[in-house]
Amino acid sequence: MAVPTLTPVSQTSAIALPATADPDEVKNGILPIGIYSNSVLTSFSSHFCTGASDQVSYTYKKLGGDVLDIELTTGSVFSSYEEAVLEYSYIVNIHQAKNTLSDMLGATTGSFDSKGSLTGSNLSSYTGSNGIALKFPRFEFQYARRVGYGVSTEAGIGGETTIYSASFTGSSGDQDFDLQQIVSASADNGTFGSTNPVGNKRINVTKVYYKSPQAMWRFYGYYGGLNTVGNLSNYGQWTDDSTFDIIPVWQNKAQAMAFEDAIYTRNSHYSYELKNNKLRIFPNMNKVSPSKYLIEFFVETDPWEEASDKTTGTDGINNMNTLPFENIPFDQVNSIGKQWIRRFALALSKETLGNIRSKFTTIPIPGDSVTLDGPALLSQGQTEQEKLREELKTVLDEITYTKLMQADAELTDAVNKVQERVPMRVFMG
């Protein structure tokens, strides 16, 4: 029997990647997301279209398209290039979030569309076309400041929480007082104004005051002139040759606090206990007891509640998700980034080609079969992607703002050590 003559219809793959591509192809809306290829969007970049078309030639050569057919379309290569740019933007934006989040907490955020572009925000007045992602923010230490406000309020030395005062009287023999009830009743009577900041909210009492008996003022009271600090207007307390030091305000505050604490601890013959806003005074009120007691307190607020004057700043950026970071503009990606993008896009194309060839492990031919390299390409592409991600993350971790400052400090120390060993020139006049 004679051997039949084979006359195949085609000697090439039905789909094969061409050696080149036209940038205009990228603009035709074939990309799945089209952030940089849609001329209608502000993020459009003609350089992206050129880069995507060049990626076809790069992929064609790297995968051996001039030797064997590559079963990819130009559209799949364009898509890989787009994904690579977006992956680069994602990793860089995370890096920048680590740098700036603590300073941007409470600042203005925005709304984003499905492509990650700002759609509704008053940020447009100062971000321009490049967006927040390209801004170098001022260091505001917002998180540290917020923590400091809370600690200062608890310590009674500042903060942003409003401190209220109230007073109450008692009768002879009284010892126990419900401060929560007293303050709430005063609030209902309009003592704190029409806004009524207390209402049914719990109060936190910070201080309890009383007046010492007048007979003790000269020796132990706040305004005495003998063996006490005060009475600064009384001429004769100091001699004419007295001298004084100019000291910072914090030192005066520390002295005042120490003096006040000494009065409460050593000199006062009145004391109190405060538990759950229940005040117990010692001793029981009598005819020589102070006629009026005063307290300072602040009102507990909902940590999520925004004050009417915006002093609390609870609205705005609260984590990485609300940072107003758009996709990095392609035109601002330098040569370092663009080379990473080329390599990552090639790895994505390998993964795509591996998936295509893995659908058929072998292809029968007359008298034999051909084994495809789909699994190997798939594994190689995925491995290269992971290596490239780790490579970029490692570099970015080494150039955080904190690491840069540490490097500058080390450089300064090194320069100082060198200068210490450089002989000084001797000037002969």
Number of strands: 10
Distance between the termini: 115 Å
- The fraction of residues in strands falls at 5-15%
Uncertain stretches = 213-236
User: What is the average of the pLDDT values?
Assistant: 80
As a whole number of angstroms, the C-alpha radius of gyration is: 38 Å
Q: What structural class should be given to the helix and strand makeup?
A: alpha+beta
Helix count from the secondary structure assignment:
11
The largest sheet has its strands arranged as 3-8-5
How would you sum up the global shape? elongated
Tell me roughly what share of residues is in helical segments.
40-55%
Written as H for each helix and E for each strand, in order along the chain, the element string is HHHEEHHEEHEHHEEEHEEHH
State the major sheet: 3 strands, antiparallel
What does this molecule look like?
The chain is an alpha+beta fold and 429 residues long. It has a domain at 23-138 and 324-414. The protein has helices at residues 23-26, 46-62, 74-104, 124-127, 142-155, 179-188, 217-220, 249-267, 335-358, 374-398, 401-421, and strands at residues 111-112, 118-120, 164-168, 176-178, 203-209, 271-275, 278-282, 293-299, 362-365, 368-371. The strands form four sheets. It has a three-stranded antiparallel β-sheet with strand order 3-8-5, with helices on one face. The protein has a three-stranded antiparallel β-sheet with strand order 4-7-6. A hairpin with a 5-residue loop joins strand 1 (111-112) and strand 2 (118-120). It is elongated. The N and C termini lie far apart (115 Å). Mean pLDDT is 80; it is low at 213-236.
